[in-house]
Design a protein that fits this description.
heterodimer, A: 321 residues, MetI-like fold, two-stranded antiparallel sheet, 2% strand, B: 279 residues, mainly alpha, 2 domains, 0% strand
Chain lengths: 321, 279
């Protein structure tokens, strides 16, 4: 009897100590994660929530007043915003389509068995991705100049000079293709590396089994490779959408037009290279209309959410994924 | 195999990769070559294809027009290193807590963290700018270093690694040896999580080194510009001096070139698996 009572007391002691220990450990855990949440509240959540409020105000450096949906009514009539929205969607479609198909083909090549120089290729494809878009915009601006490298190369091939940036003729025809070219050039390599990583994760036996069953190259590509790359594809399409809508640095450096950085008219000739992100920046920092700029950001956010949902629907149509 | 039977498949593979690699390298080659030519040589037809003799002349023009150019490189370096150190420390700390501790609301808090990874950064640019100016963080490095404490992807990434790669027994052993809770993190977890921290460090460093839009809005003092802001400004004010712009661009490209040459393999593996792990 006495011994069981002692044992019970000991067990109780151990349990209370355990409870104390686990509470103490939970407190340590909260201490360890609290910097993240505090910082995120201050610099992540607050700006987002604040931007929805800002979008409903007339907010300048000197005054602020609540105007309800006024900014959004103006958005509907603002031709500059419409142009920018059109340009951004145009760039997204062209950049996304060409970049992803190109990257997929090259990733398949990069994944070939017994390839020599694989690491060198990977390194080369990686370089533009980590280089500042400002630097690349500068360099490509020189390449695209009317008397620049690209036109010299074209005339050597017997092709007429192209006014890529619209400076020589004032025509916007080639501005968006030029921006798309620079952007695809900068990011296709990163997409190649992502697709190649996805391909690496597919066991080779699957391909071999398909071959034994008599599948040809196309059937393997359509039936096996692409479906198994779905998750990578979703990610690649997502970053392409986000990147295209937020395109800012490269067009700015190619075309100029924002106060303090670059020269010329906003977004180049006929605003042909004006993106949504550039309008947001210009509206706020050249004209001091922070409320209206926030409203354009909200529009940008809406476009992003919509496209991301569509992307998810299209790629994961079947719920088994 | 069957469709490409006439010419060996190998031929297509190497041709395709070779062309893509050539197209990728060419603009960098022009950047460096043209930075050694005068502006009038650059716009001549045909343009120069090999190194010229105007390197020093261009450099002198650069530092004359942009007296804070090297300072701007240093500023970018401070932001890159500062944000990287802060990111690594706090991401590992939070990731460790999520990986090895039990506490109320853990699941919900982790879900919030995952959701935050979906929010695009530029949405908050305007309110973020207003917030920073109200706090008084203009012409300061703080807006680009302090918020790195709340790196959602970093915390998630470190948690994944610590969960899978750091054995639980080590924690018990360390606690028996008398390490405190923070001691375990500092002396055991952080060193063991080095491989994951490495990939995170590179992402964070590159992001900090190239930071442009934020500094463009908050830095009005030229001595606080980051190098992309300095170059953009140079283009705006002296846009016609292509030689000076290109030597500045070339100097700024060198660090990334070195990263690519000396560390690309491990970095690329780390970054691709990092990017895809969020899916």
């Amino acid at each position: 009897m006495a011994s069981t009572a002692v044992a019970g007391a000991v067990r109780e002691r151990i349990q209370t100590r355990r409870v104390g220990a686990s509470t103490r450990r939970a407190l340590w855990a909260y201490l360890f994660i609290s910097p993240f949440y505090l910082s995120f509240l201050a610099f992540g959540v607050f700006p987002i929530v604040f931007s929805f409020y800002l979008a409903l105000t007339r907010w300048t450096p000197y005054q602020s007043s609540f105007i309800g949906a006024g900014n959004f009514v103006n958005l509907l009539q603002d031709n500059l915003v419409h142009t920018a929205l059109f340009n951004s969607l145009w760039l997204m479609a062209v950049i996304g389509g060409s970049q992803i198909s190109l990257a997929l083909v090259i990733a398949i090549a990069l994944n070939a068995t017994k390839l020599r120089g694989r690491e060198a290729f990977r390194g080369i494809f990686f370089l533009p991705y980590i280089t500042s878009p400002v630097v690349l915009g500068l360099v490509w601006g020189v390449i695209f100049a009317y008397t620049g490298l690209l036109n010299s190369a074209l005339s050597a091939l017997g092709i007429d000079q192209v006014d890529w940036l619209g400076y020589a003729t004032g025509s916007a025809t080639w501005i968006k293709p030029a921006i798309a070219l620079v952007t695809v050039w900068q990011f296709f390599g990163w997409n190649v590396l992502l697709f190649a990583a996805g391909l690496q994760a597919i066991p080779r036996e699957i391909f071999e089994a398909a071959r034994i069953d008599g599948a040809n190259d196309w059937q393997v590509l359509i039936g096996i490779t692409l479906p198994l790359l779905k998750r990578v594809s979703f990610f690649v399409v997502s970053i392409t959408i986000i990147g295209s809508v937020q395109l800012f640095d490269a067009p700015l450096m190619l075309l100029g037009g924002v106060a303090g950085a670059g020269s010329g008219t906003l977004g180049g000739a006929e605003a042909g290279g004006l993106t949504l992100a550039m309008v947001v920046y210009e509206t706020a920092f050249s004209y001091g209309q922070f409320g209206y700029a926030a409203a354009i950001s909200v529009l940008m956010f809406g476009v992003l959410v919509l496209l991301t949902v569509v992307n998810r629907r299209l790629l994961f149509r079947n719920l088994e994924d | 195999m069957s469709t490409f039977a006439v010419i060996p498949q190998r031929f297509y593979v190497y041709t395709l990769l070779g062309l893509a690699a050539l197209a990728t390298i060419a603009p960098f080659y022009w950047e460096f070559v043209l930075s050694t030519h005068t502006t009038s040589e650059i716009s001549s037809t045909p343009p120069p294809f090999w190194i010229g003799g105007a390197l020093l002349q261009n450099y002198h023009t650069l530092v004359e027009y942009a007296p804070f150019f090297w300072r701007s490189m240093l500023n970018s370096g401070v932001i890159a290193v500062g944000s990287t150190v802060v990111t690594i420390f706090f991401s590992a700390l939070g990731g460790y807590a999520f990986a090895r501790y039990q506490f109320p609301l853990k699941e919900q808090l982790f879900w919030v963290l995952l959701l935050t990874m979906l929010i695009p950064g530029q949405l908050g640019l305007i309110p973020w700018y207003i917030e920073m100016t109200r706090i008084g963080w203009t012409n300061s490095f703080l807006p680009f270093i302090v918020p790195a404490i709340g790196n959602a992807f970093g915390t998630f990434w470190m948690r994944q690694y610590i969960t899978s790669a750091v054995p639980v027994e080590l924690f018990d052993a360390a606690q028996i040896d008398g390490c405190g809770e923070f001691g375990v993190f500092w002396r055991i977890v952080l060193p063991l999580a080095a491989p994951a921290a490495g990939a995170l460090a590179i992402t964070s460093f590159i992001g900090g080194w190239n930071s442009f839009l934020g500094p463009l809005t908050l830095m009005s003092d030229p001595s606080m510009y980051t190098y992309p802001v300095a170059l953009a400004n140079l283009k705006g004010v002296h846009g016609t001096d292509t030689g000076a712009l290109l030597i500045g661009s070339s100097i700024a490209t060198v660090p990334m070139l070195l990263i690519t040459i000396f560390g690309s393999r491990r970095i690329i593996d780390g970054l691709t698996s990092g990017a895809l792990s969020g899916q």
